[in-house]
Design a protein that fits this description.
- The chain is mainly β.
- The protein folds into 2 domains: about 90 residues; about 140 residues, no CATH class.
- The chain is about 5% helix and about 40% strand.
- It contains 2 helices and 20 strands.
- The strands form 5 sheets. It has a 6-stranded antiparallel β-sheet, with no helix packed on it. Strands 18-17-16-15-12-19 form a 6-stranded antiparallel β-sheet, with no helix packed on it. A 4-stranded antiparallel β-sheet has the order 2-3-4-7, with no helix packed on it.
- Strand 9 and strand 10 form a beta hairpin.
- The radius of gyration is 21 Å and the shape is globular.
- The two termini are about 30 Å apart.
Amino acid sequence: MTDTATPEARLETFRRRRDESVVQPQGSLALTTTQLIDSEQSVWGVPGTWAPLPEGESGVRLTAAAADGIRVDDALVDGSVVVTGKDSEAPSVVRFSDTVMGFIIAVEGGYALRVWDAKSEAIQNFGGIDAFPYNPDWVITATFRENPEGTTIGFEHLKDEGKTRDMVIPGEISFEKDGTEYNLAAFKSGRALQLVFADATNGESTYSVGRFLFVAPNPDGTITLDFNLAVLPPCAFSYAFNCPMPPKQNRFAVPIEAGEKNVLAKDGSLLH
């Protein structure tokens, strides 16, 4: 897509790529399970017995028979092996079949097994991501003011039962629209800032939990908020994700009729 393309054409390309990304083997629709391993236990949908390691060690212990067909780092498991976590220098890859694989991730309370199915029911039934038409009213130039290093805000997550996790907020995003002043908080996500927001469309025309917008400060100290690029959080695609919730200052009382709305099944109904 060239720089001379219209905003509508660029948005169409963005949305096509979004549809393609969520059906990849590790796309949002492929995630079927995230289960904390806090005792010797089985995990829904996959074979083997899983158990925590001593505190301070990365990963979990897997016990399985050769007949279970589980491979860890390409080696067939017949007995007990350590499956290292994503926080390890050498994270393990678990393969249950040609289409089903897993990783161990660090979570609140220890380590969890995440299972991805490249032919999941959700992928098979995916009809597309419903979205608003391009809306120039929600392309906003804001100011970005850096925070003192280490500034944090507590973010609640969907499955954390009201507990918050302190996340570093590199700066404050401020703008005025229709006579209302906004001061938003976004946390670091790779090289971008991740804005988690809610608005008056949630639970009506858009996903109830909220949406994400990924942005980056401009060299002149401004920041462009193009809400047409707002995306649904991973938990809109799979219940196995645990997504951050919008903090109070990121909750708009007005409807933001721009960006993605809901995940649809092939028959046009809501997928979740």
